[in-house]
């Protein structure tokens, strides 16, 4: 049938809509009309349901809490009521419904009934739940892994300490080793044990990083003054200069932020070019919702092929005989920036200096 009257055409279309259940209710919530979408979503035919109260779509719990009636009175009072929750189909199965109840008025503005539109959002809600569950599982696995690293590294320290103690005892109690040259071997073993101790300590620190952290305001200018003071010996010995300007006050985990700056600055000093004064600068600018900090040096630089690898734990690009280190510093930096919901990266070319940058949200909206 062809409808010339646009009003009739609209009514006919409402009846045909399948993605929304569109029904009209009288003042007491009795169902007066029913479209095809309602049949599809709720499973009743118009014949089954017209004349019944719309509360049949609600779970027994919602019914005894009086939810259907309170939604109607809200729509009566405010003209509109919105609610999302589990609803019941004819066959007893449930779906997640997003419901808008709108009051219909006569020409005098008196409420005469309601129009109720329901969307089935079950798929969306289940997907959201799935993502939440997976996130919770991932967080739990992460905690377990950190716990494992903590316990393993803690337990590994013990036998190492014993090795070192007994080597010291051997040196004290068997002085003849000085004559036989065995001392050289003992020293190498001792140095390796020391180094392993350092690596394990680094792992322990890495696993514990941020476990007790609380966010506060951090004035980065003041922080940088303190760091410069702390590093004055290293700056003096290396002849490097450290400058900084226009650093903001941020909301952050203070000890971790300090460690982040210290790691980046000490790397910038350590990886300077021989025969050239090291110049390190710390700056910051706001980019949208984030502060973007940069630590720039004029040092040896890093080839692009290694820009991602260096943030992994124990990854180093140089032998220890040239540059001392454990390869944990940048892994710590990455973990600290992750804790702050930011990103960290580097722009650099071999031999051209490096800029390590990281972002910190201006405002925190996520919880850890
Ligand atoms: P470590 O400094 O103990 O070696 P890091 O995790 O701090 O460990 O750094 C990993 C590697 O990244 C370093 O060994 C070095 O090769 C490279 N790197 C870090 N910072 C710089 C820098 N500012 N300039 C050049 N290379 C750097």
Automatic annotation (TrEMBL):
It catalyses: ATP + protein L-histidine = ADP + protein N-phospho-L-histidine. Residues 81-133 form the PAC domain. PROSITE patterns: HIS_KIN, PAC, PAS. InterPro entries: HATPase_C_sf (IPR036890), HATPase_dom (IPR003594), His_kinase_dom (IPR005467), HisK_dim/P_dom (IPR003661), HisK_dim/P_sf (IPR036097), PAS (IPR000014), PAS-assoc_C (IPR000700), PAS-like_dom_sf (IPR035965). The keyword Lyase does not apply. GO terms for molecular function: phosphorelay sensor kinase activity. Residues 151-364 form the Histidine kinase domain. CDD domains: HisKA, PAS. This is histidine kinase. It is an enzyme of class 2 (transferase). Keywords: Kinase, Phosphoprotein, Transferase. Residues 22-64 form the PAS domain.
């Amino acid at each position: 049938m062809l409808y010339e009257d646009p009003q009739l055409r609209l009514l006919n279309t409402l009846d045909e809509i399948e993605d929304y259940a569109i029904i009209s209710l009288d003042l007491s919530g009795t169902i007066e009309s029913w479209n095809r979408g309602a049949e599809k979503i709720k499973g009743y035919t118009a014949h089954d349901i017209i004349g019944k109260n719309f509360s049949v779509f609600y779970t027994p719990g919602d019914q005894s809490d009086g939810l259907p009636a309170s939604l109607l009175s809200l729509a009566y009072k405010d003209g509109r009521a919105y609610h999302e929750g589990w609803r019941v189909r004819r066959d007893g199965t449930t779906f997640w419904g997003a419901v808008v109840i709108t009051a219909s008025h006569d020409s005098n503005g008196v409420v005469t009934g309601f129009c109720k539109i329901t969307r089935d959002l079950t798929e969306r809600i289940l997907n959201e739940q799935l993502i939440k569950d997976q996130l919770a599982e991932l967080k739990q696995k992460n905690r377990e892994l950190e716990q494992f690293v903590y316990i393993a590294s803690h337990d590994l320290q013990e036998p190492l300490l014993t090795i070192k103690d007994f080597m010291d005892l051997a040196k004290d109690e068997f002085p003849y080793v000085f004559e036989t040259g065995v001392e050289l071997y003992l020293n190498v073993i001792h140095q390796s044990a020391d180094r392993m101790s350092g690596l394990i300590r680094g792992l322990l620190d890495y696993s514990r990083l941020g476990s007790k952290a609380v966010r506060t305001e951090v004035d980065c200018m003041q922080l940088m003054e303190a760091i410069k003071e702390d590093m004055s010996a290293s700056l003096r010995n290396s002849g490097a200069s450290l400058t900084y300007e226009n650093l903001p006050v941020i909301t952050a985990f203070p000890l971790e932020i300090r460690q982040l700056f210290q790691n980046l600055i000490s790397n910038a000093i350590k990886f300077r070019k021989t025969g050239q004064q090291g110049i390190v600068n710390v700056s910051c600018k706001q980019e949208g919702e984030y502060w973007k900090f940069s630590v720039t040096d004029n040092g040896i630089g890093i080839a692009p092929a290694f820009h991602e690898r260096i943030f992994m734990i124990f990854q180093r690009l140089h032998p220890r005989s040239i540059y001392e280190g454990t390869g944990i510093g940048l892994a710590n930096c990455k973990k600290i920036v992750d804790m702050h919901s930011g990103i960290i990266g580097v722009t650099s070319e071999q031999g051209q200096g490096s800029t390590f940058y990281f972002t910190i949200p201006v405002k925190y909206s996520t919880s850890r």
